[in-house]
Amino acid sequence: MTSLVRPFLFAWHFLTAIPLSRHHHEPTAMELASSMAWYSTVGLMIGGTLALADTVLTNLFASEVVNVLLIVLLVVLTRGLHQDGLADTLDGIAGGREPADRLSIMRDPRIGAIGATGLFLSLILRYAAFMALPQPLRLPALVCMPALGRWAMVTLAWLSPYARAEGGLAAPFLAHLSLVHVLGSTLVLASALILMLGVSETIAILAVGSAVVATVQAGCRALFGGITGDTLGATNELVEILFLLVVPLALVLS
Fold this sequence. Notes:
The protein is 78% helix and 0% strand. By secondary structure, it is mainly alpha-helical.
C-alpha cells in the first residue's frame, strides 16, 4: 500500500499547493517516475474542485465573475506552476538563437515582454473559453480539463529526452518514466472522458491530444534539444486551453 500512497502524495504535492502529509519526503527517482502515473488522477481531483466551486459560485455571482474566480482558483491550487512554465518557454523561444541560449534565458527568474504577453493572452483565452462553454459541457470540461493537461505532460515526458545536461527540476521525474506509467495515466483519463463525454468523443480527444503532444515534442527537440520542466508546464497550458476551445465541437458533432 505504501508503494502506491507515496507516489500519489508526491504527485499531489508537486502539482498542487495543498499539503496532505508531512511524513513523506525524500522520494527516490523511481517514486518520482511512478508519481507521474497519478497525474491524471490529481488532475481529476483539481477539476472536481473547479466544478464544485463553479456550482457554488454560480448561485452567488454573475457568470463573468464566476469564470474569473475559477481561473484564480486554478492558479492558486497549482501555485501558478504551469503559467510560469509557459512564460519562461515563450521568453526562451523569443530571445534565443540557439538551444543553449534559449535554455539560459528560461533559467532567468525575471519575466520578459513576450512571456508576459503570452501569459496574459493565455488567461484571456481561458476566460473566453469558459464563457463560451455550452452548459451541457461545462461540468465535463471543468472536470476533465486538468486531467488532460497533465496526461499531456506525462506523455510528452515519456517521448522526449531531457534538454539540460546538468539536470533540472524535471530530470529526476524522467529518469525511470516508462510506458506503464503513461498507460496508467491514460487509463484514468480515458475512463473519465468516456464517463462524462462518451466513447467516440474520447477517441477524438485523445487522438487530437496525441497529435498536439507529438507536434510539441518535435518543436521542443528543434528549439531546446528536448524538454524541461518549463516546456512541460507550457504544454499543460496549451492542451488545457485547446481542449476548452475545441470541446464544444463535440456537442455540435454529436
